[in-house]
Amino acid sequence: MRLPKLDERGAKPLDKAWLTECELKKVLAGELPEDVICQSNLFQSEPRLGIVRDNGVTKEGLLYQAQYLRMSEYIKIGAIVSGIDFQPTTKQRTRFGGEGRLASVEVTDDHILYPPKIQSNQGQNLLLMLLTPADLGCKKESWLPSSNFKKVNRPIIDGKKSTVWEVNINGVELSIISAVLGKTVQEGGWNLRQNCPRPLKSLVPAGSVWFCQVKENLASAIEKLHGFQIGEETALGRGELFAGIWK
C-alpha cells in the first residue's frame, strides 16, 4: 500500500472544517488551500432529547432525539432541486426546520463549481473528493467508491509488490492508489410512515479523498467524474464527487 507522507508526527485529516469555493478550486487544481474555516464559525450542533406532551400529559412511545443546528448570522443553505414548480420573482417566506422558524427562500439558477482546466502535460494522476456523504454499504471494503473494484498486484517496484484497486466509473478506467477518509458518519432517524426506527447507516464523510491514476486522458476523466454520484440513495444528494489533479 502507498500511504500519504506525513510531514509532522500525529497529523490526521481535519475534522469539522470547511473550504470556500475559492479554496476548493485550489485543491482541485493540485494546490494547497490557504484558509480553512472551522465548523463552529458556521453553525453549532445542539442535541435534544424529549417526549411529546398533550396538555401537560406525556404520551407513551413518543420519546424522541433530535440534532438541531444553530446557524451563524448570514449563513445560507443551498440545494439543487428539479421537478418543483416554484419560481417566485422575489424572496418568499416559509417555515423551515424542526422548530418551524421563519426563513426566506430564493430560487436562483444552478450554480455548480466547474472542474479545473487541464493542460495536455498534466499526467494521469486524478484526485476524487466527496462533496456530500456517501452510502457505500457496510461491506468489508466499503471505503472503495464502488463495489466493482478488483484488487490487483502490480509488478515488483523497489523489491516490493504494489497493490492497487481497478475499476470503471462512468466510463473512466482508473486505479486507486491510496485514500484519506474521515471518520464514519452514522445516520438514523424515525420512519414516520411505518412507525419504526430507520436503519442506522454508516456513511463515508464529505471531504474524503481518493488518489487515483487514470489509464487514458486525464482531462476527459475529470469531465466525466466531476459531479458524478457514487453509492446508494443518490437521489437524496449522497455521494457527489468533485474531480481534480493530484500532484
UniProtKB/TrEMBL annotation:
InterPro entries xref list: CRISPR-assoc_protein_Cmr3
Short name of one Pfam family: Cas_Cmr3
Name used for this protein in its record: Uncharacterized protein
